Hints:
The structure holds two protein chains of two kinds. By secondary structure, chain A is mainly α.
Amino acid sequence: MEKKVKLAEQKADLVYLNNTQQNLGRDKEYNGQKRDSLVARLRTGDRAAAVELVDDYYQQIYLFMRKLGHDRQVSEDLTQECFFNAWHHIGQLKDGKALNGWIYRIASNVSRLHWRRHKNKEVIGIEDLEKPYSGKGEPEKMEQTEQLEHLRAAVERLPMKLRETIILHYMQQLTIAEATEAAGINQGTFKSRLNRALTILRKNIK
Amino acid sequence: MKEEQIKELLSELGRRATEPVRPGLGEEIKQRIPHRLSRHKIGWDTVNIIIDLRLSKSVAVASIIITMILLLNFFGGRDLTGGGIIKDSMLLIKYWGRSGEDHISIARVKYEHLLERGENVIWYGDCIDIKDANSVLIQRKLPDAKYQLTFVDGHEKQVNSEQLVELLTLMLERRTK
């Protein structure tokens, strides 16, 4: 009897996994089509497309600035500057796939310029971490939160170039190609920076 | 700690390192979308460079004229004692002599260009005394709550909000006198 129940559960899990994968595939395809259409409209100078771009990205870019260590006010200013620059570089936008890399590259450049102008400014990251929403028990949750706090401190101590690669790829969830484009370096250099950053983090968090 | 575990934790950190974004921010960005969202025009690069370098256009024009005069004198075999350079210099001085009104028209072009770029700029050219060299022509808002002011004589200055209010008040007072 127990075996039958287990088999039924396994079957249900498989069906659920298949459905989820199919849905994810469909979502990906839809997002790809949406981005292609958005980029095409942006390239023709459609203002409504620009509004859509702001809606899709302004929160991401703001949080990216915060993760790079800018305070709230500066992050807001830099987010505005990023979009301001974006309107003047729309001609450089090629297709939907390049959209993430393009906007993050502008954001990275804006941030880099700011750090260059204010070399001695203090790095201020996001202070409070959102509570976990996984189904873990209390002790596990506490342990994970502690690990995350250590990791965040270690990421903040990384040199800017390495920190940027970690934030782009792991924390902002960009693909290697998108993150490479955003960092404005070649893929080999990006991967090597990523490895160096991970090695340092591994040493610092034992 | 294993590398894979660190990667997972980094992704989790990315998801959880978040904070509420000020609701008005998106609207502010949308308001600054230029009315004519056009593709990047190469021709504007030169203008942008001049504006970004904060180089006065009249200075740029004068530099070009001086370079041309020198080149003509050098390659054209003109006699230096024949007055060629002197005449050219006179022309140049004449050009500088009309600088008052020219500065305003140049500043107007600059203002329109900045406005088209979606910058936060204000034009005071219609309500000031042109003869007063300390009158502000253009006010341009910069990040970090600073303002870049362009004056009637073409010089530029960065000020904070308090200095701006003071300058504008003085300007209006001078005008009413």
